[in-house]
Fold this protein.
Amino acid sequence: MIILGIETSCDETAAAIVSNGSEILSNVISTQVDYHKKYGGIVPEIASRKHQENIIPVVREALDRAHMQLQDIQGIAVTQGPGLIGSLLVGVNAAKAIAYARSIPLVGINHLEGHMLAPHLECDIPLPNITLVVSGGHTNIYYMEKVGSYRLLGKTRDDAAGEAYDKVAKLLGLGYPGGVVIDRLAQNGNPAAFSFPRPMMHDASCDFSFSGLKTAVLYCVKNNFPDGVPENVLPDLAASFQQAVVDSIVEKTLQACIVCKVSAVALTGGVAANSRLRLHMQQRAQERKISLYLTSTILCTDNAAMIAKAGSFKLAHDLPFPYEMNAISRWPL
Ligand code: KG4
Ligand code: ZN
């Protein structure tokens, strides 16, 4: 089945065409970062307006790159939630219009389920497994019994890991979005230069907490560098903060594998693109004889191929959605 995926939950307008749930024929992502940068974060009103401008050109581009036309598409999958309501509505309404015009089935996808299935686009991952979704909005550990059956084992009690990256980057004056900048800067820094807390790292739950870490960085800066952080200290600060995030994520995720007696773990979501996290997870998983499945960085961050992948599964197993379906801003999985 040839599925068109559409994703507009946040600040990326994305469309992709996936064949038989596995072959990515095109994967187009139009980012709005430059429009939000000067505000230090996403402005929802700007995001929805930009999605409106971009959605048709992005869908067209996805069709062109796949050497296809609308009549070749057999089903549509669209991110229905969670996310910014004004942004979601653009994708949902575009998907409804195309599905109605072409009389093809339509399904709404939970963005988190899309992230969870992204690693499955690239390889066969054993089931059951532990899947970590670590992004700007979520840090969730799931026990995936099979596709469509997920148990949430733990989540962040405050900030998501990506949110902590973005907030720390902002307080260090590094701009938005922070993850990539901190990742790059940290490559020249000493991760042991500053001692930051790893909240909840050794407790019995699978939950995370990153808000205290962010505050620790804030006080470290205030106390040690009241006149501003010198340029040459930034890499050490970035590396030390990053190491605290990575240690928490790696420890908790592998602990979940051990508790659930599962020997496969998959990482997905924007923060799963982080170079230090990928390296440490590889080393620690190997020590504990757990097979690690990493996703290409293009499929870690928001994309529509993962939505089409989830859609292929749903259209094969469930009934298509009625056209009355609507965007859902809060939708836990
Ligand atoms: O999955 P995603 O694209 O959108 C959400 O669903 O949230 O994730 C975006 C988040 C942002 O917080 C961004 O700073 C973070 O992922 N991110 C990274 C890296 N690339 C993106 N964080 C750490 N290291 C990276 N290389
Ligand atoms: Zn996402």
User: Anything to note?
Assistant: The pocket of KG4 (ligand 1) is lined by residues 10, 135-137, 162, 165-166, 177-180, 183, 269-271, 273-274, 301-302 (CB under 6 Å).
